[in-house]
């Protein structure tokens, strides 16, 4: 009887904590949640096809790729940094992975590991330079952005690398149980990992401390270099995952892949309420921000809006979001 009562008490506590977390999440993100709902309603009125199951799954697939980048970008922006190289890392990792399969005949598993290693290496380079020099992260990642993009063009001679392997194509185009797309499954796993890092580990607490006041964090004994190195290395790994998944979806490694991806990732993070000055941000907010970007892009495509105009719209969205953050900070 005592054990049954204890189990029931634990169950009640779990449900209570879960309910409290959901209420807190809604309260903290009420503004952007309303914005997301309003955007969905407007687009569905203009084009009812938006609410079709196929289109909603397509939105989830597109959003998942952006969120791989945005989750790591959240950590970096909380630190007060920026990573402009993620789009180029997507391209070079996708190209390396497909070349390993198409040209060298490597097994898919080995090819994927090679792609992940390249992304991890570039991210580690960003992290090492950011942690050990006074060069601003903007300049560091701008340089590696060009290096990685150039490498993607050089090793492919500017041509796509086609791969017609069922096992490789399943990575980005397959389904679990015929319902859940593989990219969404990866996203759910990565969301849990990132949430755990930011909310349940000392490393996550240190990121907030460094972003809030690096000098105070240093005097409190936090290893700032270690924190910075991890964030940029993790960003490189996440970009590699995004690049491999995208290459699998397109059945080819494209040296042009990921162009402008850093813009979408930054937009998702800022829309989610993460402060560009560092020290504040939530993974949950980034998810909603990415959904807004994904729904907006999909809706503009359904309405036949030119991709040129889409860049303008996203730029305006980022500007408004940053301005809103500045106003909120001043009031606080």
From TrEMBL:
Keyword flag Ion transport: no
Alphabetically ordered keywords of this record: Cell membrane, Membrane, Transmembrane, Transmembrane helix
Keyword Transcription regulation attached: no
Database matches in CDD domains: TM_PBP1_transp_AraH_like
Subcellular location: Cell membrane
Membrane topology: Multi-pass membrane protein
Segments forming a coiled coil: none
Regions that span the bilayer: 30-47, 67-92, 99-122, 134-155, 175-198, 229-247, 283-302
Primary site of residence: membrane
InterPro entries: ABC_transp_permease
Name of this chain's protein: Ribose ABC transporter permease
């Amino acid at each position: 009887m005592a054990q049954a009562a204890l189990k029931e008490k634990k169950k009640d506590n779990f449900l209570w904590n879960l309910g409290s977390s959901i209420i807190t999440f809604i309260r903290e993100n009420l503004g952007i949640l309303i914005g997301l709902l309003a955007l969905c309603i407007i687009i569905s009125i203009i084009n009812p096809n938006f609410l079709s199951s196929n289109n909603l799954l397509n939105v989830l697939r597109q959003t998942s790729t952006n969120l791989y980048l945005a989750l790591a970008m959240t950590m970096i922006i909380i630190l007060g940094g920026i990573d402009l190289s993620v789009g180029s890392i997507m391209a070079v990792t996708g190209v390396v992975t497909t070349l390993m399969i198409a040209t060298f005949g490597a097994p898919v598993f080995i090819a994927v590991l090679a792609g992940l290693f390249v992304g991890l290496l570039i991210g580690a380079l960003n992290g090492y330079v950011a942690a050990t020099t006074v060069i601003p992260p903007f300049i560091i990642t701008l340089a590696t952005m060009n290096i990685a993009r150039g490498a993607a063009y050089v090793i492919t001679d500017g041509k796509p690398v086609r791969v017609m392997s069922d096992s490789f194509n399943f990575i980005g185009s397959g389904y679990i149980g015929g319902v859940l797309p593989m990219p969404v499954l990866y996203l759910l796993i990565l969301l849990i990992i990132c949430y755990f890092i930011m909310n349940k580990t000392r490393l996550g607490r240190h990121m907030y401390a460094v972003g809030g006041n690096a000098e105070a964090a240093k005097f409190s004994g936090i290893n700032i270099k270690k924190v910075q190195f991890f964030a940029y290395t993790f960003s490189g790994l996440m970009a590699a995952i995004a690049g491999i998944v995208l290459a699998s979806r397109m059945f080819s490694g494209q040296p042009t892949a990921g162009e402008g991806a850093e813009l979408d990732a930054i937009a998702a993070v800022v829309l989610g309420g993460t402060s560009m000055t560092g020290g504040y941000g939530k993974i949950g907010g980034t998810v909603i921000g990415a959904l807004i970007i994904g729904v907006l892009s999909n809706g503009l495509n359904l309405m036949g809006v030119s991709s040129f105009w889409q860049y303008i719209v996203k730029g305006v969205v980022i500007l408004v979001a940053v301005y809103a953050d500045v106003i909120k900070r001043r009031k606080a």
